Amino acid sequence: MKKILAMVLAVVLLLGITACTPQDNSAEKIAPPTLKYLYNTSDAHKAIAEYIQSAFATVGVTMTLENQEWNTFLNTRKNGEYGVARNGWVADYNDPICFLDMWTSNSGNNDVQFGKGAHKDLAMYSVDLTPYGGEKIENKTWAETYDVLIAKIKATTKAEDRYALMHIAEDMLMATGCITPIYYYTDLYMIDDKVEGFYSNPLGYKYFMYTTVDGKTDKLNVCLASEPDTLDPALNSAVDGATMLVQMFSGLAKWTYVDGKFVIAPDCAKELVEGVVNDDGTVTYTYTLRDGLKWSNGDELKASDFVNAWKRAASTELGADYGYMFEVVKGYGTDNKDDLAVVADDAAKTITVTLSNAVAYWNELLAFPTYFPVHSSAYTSEKWATEPATYICNGAYKMDAWTHDSVITLKKNANYHDAASVKMEELNCYLSDDANNMLTNFKKGDWLFIDDVPTNEIAALKTDYADEFVIAGQIGTYYVCWNINQDLLPGSTLSAVEKEKAQQEIRKAFGLILDRNHIVANVSQAGEVPASSFVAMGMTEADGSEFYKNANKAAGATYVGYYDTSADAFSGNVAKAVETLQKYYNITVAE
Q1: What predicted TM-score, i.e. pTM, was given to this entire model?
Q2: What is the pLDDT of residues 432-451, one digit of tens each?
Q3: Which of 224, 281, 304, 531 could be joined to 344 by an S-S link, Cβ 3.0–4.6 Å?
Q4: What domains sit in the chain, N to C, each tagged with a CATH number?
């Protein structure tokens, strides 16, 4: 790290900017505010935070670091009680919209706080939808532009137009400077070579129900993460929580791994039917449930269990982060959850759902945890998902014990419709966010799967555990997010719009001083790829090309994406950043 920071300093010195040179607007310049960077407990996140802190110091900006336990961190970020924070997003399904619709004003995953607080009334955004049958919107709020754009994307069925609109959405996001991409994810974990039958999908969910250990099926000890924030399918928004849920719940569809390929297959539904296009452009699907479906307590699982669960998850009353995933269903968005166009016929065992228009990724939504059913007891107890005695599920496993902050024990669910295919009888999910503790238990042979390792051990593990240390592909982006209501120009006399335009410049300048190649090679060290866009690599266009490679094309960039992440471009990036920061701040470059 010292070497790379020395390089940053050398670039700045060569450019003759060891201190601010007075300019005509020097009287308006201020000392840069002290920034606080929030991250969650992890060696890797800490190492990246320390690098970012040091990089900011080279251009005269002080940044303090704050570390929070995972669940506290999630809620702090979600509530907008931060200035700058580490963030990451893994695809919910294989379509770029899942990286874009999270930033609408009312999305529970809108950690940047677009359209919230003071930003709610800021009218400065424009979008031209006339080439796509919409209107030209000028100098309006985030809700009046970006939210409208996302709704237009979801209502567009022509593939070429839909992808063009998604690029416009990403252009709008990146223009704010609130999202600073660092790298495209890989999925790093360790699995003992005695374990067979394991697979992990591109969303990062791990599947253990078909595993054996040296041919035995009595039990498997794993560690995914610390105590989950929630194990309610409607409320969960974490990858480790989703991994727990896919062991214990069965939706209409599921992810399977067949002949080396991932396939969305029927689960509780007998088949994944084709939709019927109606005269008004809506699309109706009718699914028939398998015979003999039961909950883990022996109750009959009915079509109405799915319908009620969907209405609950989509309701404003519940306020679930992923409630917006039901936007595609006709009737979504009113205060009356019964307006959602989904109907159950328990006698016929059918679920009929009508979408506002054709949705390319509909089957993947059906396999997503938010679309899982929940037992009727969930409506009578807010704490139903916190203890084994009240945790009723319908998947391969049922919860047998939960020693909070220690271990969750799952046992094979005899009432699961495909129980005959489940091999592993018992799954012990140990709870820890201490990577050193995870690795110690793995080396001792106590835990046969761990989902994190200490960063400083990665180089050795690649050699010493070559067959057990895994770096897999994963569709996701690690990034720094800025609270859009964070004041970067305190005391400024600029108008609200002028001030936000200046802050956009500042945030984008900060993004230029980060050496992504150094981070992936010397800090994270897990084979990641430096990121130049928010939508991750792995997503494809209508023509089969990669979405991220076509990012920012409208701006005529000669490089891929919104940042030139090549090693040769770094010194020029730093020079541009300092030039911008000097417009607003009296900064002194570190010596």
Answers
A1: 0.83
A2: 989 999 999 999 999 999 99
A3: 304
A4: 2-184+474-584 (no CATH), 193-433 (3.40.190.10)
